[in-house]
Design goal:
With about 70 residues, the chain is mainly beta. It has 1 helix and 5 strands.
């Protein structure tokens, strides 16, 4: 029997999600607000692809907010 959940790291914190979850599903779980950029396994994912990018067990997601100031 195959597992019904996957475990991913989001900004180094472990999260569980249902199998076939998208990057958008993972982002929703964090509550982060725009603006930010997202990368999965160190590969940038365009915002237009968040709903279509299906995650796999042990994927590493980095959500990076811009730094302002000078």
């Amino acid at each position: 029997m195959s597992p019904k959940i996957i475990t991913v790291l989001i900004n180094k914190n472990s999260h569980t999600l249902p199998v076939a979850s998208s990057l958008a599903d993972a982002i929703a779980q964090t509550g982060i607000q725009q603006p930010f950029a997202a990368a999965v396994n160190m590969q940038f994912v365009p915002r237009s692809q968040y709903d279509r990018h299906v995650l796999a067990d042990n994927d590493r997601i980095d959500l990076i907010a811009p730094v302002t100031g000078g």
